[in-house]
Design a protein that fits this description.
By secondary structure, this protein is mainly beta. It has one domain (15-271): Sandwich (Jelly Rolls), CATH 2.60.120. It contains four helices and 18 strands. Strand 11 (137-142) and strand 12 form a beta hairpin. The chain is globular. 38% of the residues are buried.
């Protein structure tokens, strides 16, 4: 008979994806860097493949121990033109695991530290293959730059935008989104549970989804990390139209002065 601790290990879920960016470079076997083509939600940034916007950095975080983190770092670059002729004043970063890693059911988490600034729109999410919203979207963490809250949501036919299956967590005990937090989704065949630092903040059951439209969460999903700037979701919260849609002047100044960075310590997925 195996030792007791090994018996217990048999009940643990399998770790099927993990990246702590310790190698000091973005692993191309796990991640794709995406560049801007079609722009949705009236976002104000172009995604570019650049070491200016996506890179690995060292941090110590008051521990004295060096740690590697992924950085998404936007820049003010007036008149930037994409290959297809679109013009933007900001560049930023977006990565995903499409065609390199996907899963159906399990627990996906990312440990992240977010910047303050109205109109900043970072997200950690999972998307199915095919056309949106029929492919099903799981937003594990979204944030529009107001440090006291983050949100999570599901999107599919009949339930998308900020209309139905969405919830906000307002932080407690003086915490906010600019500190390190772990954002998690536990995805099962008939239930999806969102957590922050292990605390359940939203539970969606299949009947809840079926009330609005078909359940689109039985298919493979891949992971996405990005930092958008402005756009519909920030605008719906802050009402800012100028100098940029969803982005006030003080946030533009923060970007121009290189004060805005999203840090990701690690990403992991366990299979149920």
């Amino acid at each position: 008979m195996p030792p007791v601790e090994n018996v217990a290990d048999l009940n643990q879920p399998d770790l099927i994806f993990y990246d702590d960016f310790r190698s000091g470079r973005l692993d191309p076997s796990k991640w794709n860097v995406r560049t801007t083509g079609k722009v949705v939600n009236n976002e104000q940034q172009a995604y570019v493949d650049s070491s200016e916007t996506i890179y690995i950095a060292s941090t110590h975080e008051n521990t004295g121990v060096e740690n590697k983190v992924l950085v998404l770092h936007p820049h003010y670059q007036p008149g930037f033109t994409t290959r297809d002729g679109q013009h933007f004043d900001f560049i930023s970063g977006r990565i995903d695991t499409r065609e390199k890693f996907h899963f159906t059911y399990g627990s996906a988490s990312a440990r992240m530290k977010l910047p303050a600034g109205a109109g900043l729109w970072p997200a950690f999410w999972a998307m199915g293959y095919g056309s949106w919203p029929e492919n099903g979207e799981i937003d594990v963490m979204e944030y529009v730059g107001e440090p006291d809250w983050v949100s999570c949501a599901l999107h599919g036919p009949g339930y998308f935008g900020e209309s139905a299956l969405v919830n906000k967590l307002f932080f407690w005990n003086g915490e906010d989104a600019t500190s390190w937090h772990t954002y998690t989704v536990d995805w099962a065949p008939n239930r999806i549970v969102f957590k922050v630092d292990g605390v359940v903040v939203y539970r969606v059951t299949r009947p809840m989804v079926d009330f609005f439209g078909p359940w689109m969460f039985s298919n493979e999903k891949y992971l996405i990390l990005n930092l958008a700037l402005g756009g519909v979701y920030p605008f719906k919260t802050n009402g800012i139209r100028a100098p940029y849609f969803g982005i006030p002047e003080d946030t533009v100044l923060k970007i121009r002065e290189d004060q805005v960075r999203v840090l990701i310590d690690w990403v992991k997925v366990y299979e149920f």
